[in-house]
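User: Hi! I have a protein structure encoded as tokens and I'd like to know what sequence might fold into it. I'm fairly new to this, so please keep things simple.
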């Protein structure tokens, strides 16, 4: 599943390049963002390979990279979200939902990784919480693979539903292997949905609307409708 999640992310961004929807001719901040986020993907896959081969000591030492790497991901991801809405967020998303949901899910990712590190000696929890954290990062990959314009105005929730299928696979594997579902999966899925509901509650409130208009004021993003639309 580590390889599957990595493949979803790589495939989503590669499709954008192949389809001509993206380019390497972008400001340096985009490249830094890509390096840091794909660096985490590589780290996650490497950590699974190490533990699979029994290299526990190296797995533990390498795991501490997360303490510095994850906060950097949250900062860069939030900055890129702001830049995106200022340039005009994807038309199939509501600007407010995009602006608030991205940082909220990134904070959830950081929280799940932090909890996994705290519970690193309880391996059943550790591996599943890390899995759920990684699953969150597949959202942008799914967002580039799914027919998002056809899913508006529920495109964001459609991508989240796809993300949620990943821990569901883990639940099925648990049930087949042990006859029971580990509670970490339920926590992960519950937090996916709970955090998104909270983000939407803020985004679609008068405060959320005011913040979105303030962030986009005077930029190209101010000229697009705040709600999803078809060009």
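Assistant: Happy to help. Inverse folding works backwards from shape to sequence: for each of the 231 positions I chose a residue that suits the local structure. Here it is:
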């Amino acid at each position: 599943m580590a390889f599957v999640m990595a493949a979803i992310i790589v495939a989503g961004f590669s499709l954008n390049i192949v389809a001509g929807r993206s380019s390497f001719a972008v400001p340096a901040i985009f490249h830094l963002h890509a390096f840091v986020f794909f660096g985490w993907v590589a780290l996650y896959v490497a950590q699974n390979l190490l533990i699979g081969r029994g290299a526990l000591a190296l797995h533990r030492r390498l795991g501490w990279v997360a303490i510095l790497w994850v906060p950097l991901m949250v900062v860069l991801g939030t900055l890129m979200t702001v830049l995106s809405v200022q340039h005009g967020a994807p038309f199939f998303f509501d600007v407010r939902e995009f602006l608030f949901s991205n940082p909220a899910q990134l904070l959830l990712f950081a929280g799940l990784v932090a909890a996994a590190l705290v519970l690193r000696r309880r391996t059943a929890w550790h591996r599943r919480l890390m899995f759920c954290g990684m699953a969150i990062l597949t959202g942008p990959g799914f967002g580039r693979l799914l027919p998002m314009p056809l899913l508006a105005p529920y495109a964001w929730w459609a991508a989240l539903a796809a993300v949620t299928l990943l821990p569901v696979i883990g639940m099925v594997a648990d049930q087949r292997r042990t006859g029971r579902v580990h509670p970490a999966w339920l926590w992960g899925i519950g937090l996916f949905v709970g955090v998104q509901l909270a983000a939407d509650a803020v985004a679609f409130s008068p405060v959320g609307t005011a913040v979105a208009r303030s962030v986009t004021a005077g930029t190209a993003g101010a000229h697009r409708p705040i709600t999803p639309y078809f060009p």
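A useful reference point when you look it over: The mean pLDDT is 95. Feel free to ask if any position seems puzzling.
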